[in-house]
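Reply to dn_fold:

You asked what the input looked like. This is it:
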Amino acid sequence: MPDATALDQATAMIENAWGRPIEALESLAVRRPSDDPLLRSAMHIRSALVVTDNAVAVHQDRLHALTRSGHVPAFYDLERITGSAADLRVAHAESRTSLQAISHVIDAREAAAPAGRAPAARLTQAAVARSGHAPRALGQSPDQPAPPAVVGPSVAGLGPHR
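and this is what came back:
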């Protein structure tokens, strides 16, 4: 059995993350894209991976045909072999990038899932928590209050202006 292609790996990653077969997820992503934007994003990346996976297969077939056993390539075939090998490397790199992007989308989904709150509420809560803490001077102990912030013009604003 040949190794799993990048498309097979992406399909397995998406099915494991969402817990449904890819066919059901495809219809959900198309019918209700606003319900799960991360699913829509993962499916969009996967659709680009379909094209890249086909390109990998084409370049591999071309290389196998040009370098088949018992065949001595002609001089003009050397450039085609080199070009096909380079194109295959690019297609593999695009496949790996797509797999990594799907992995990041799944990680983002998992990071957002346990929160249970809207991102705006979490950001607001974090901003309120940070606003009560002023930066401390070096060497100042944590139990001492921070010095008040200076309100007024800065020192640089006090000289003559040109």
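The helical segments are 6-18, 22-31, 37-66, 75-112, 119-131.
Hope that clears it up.
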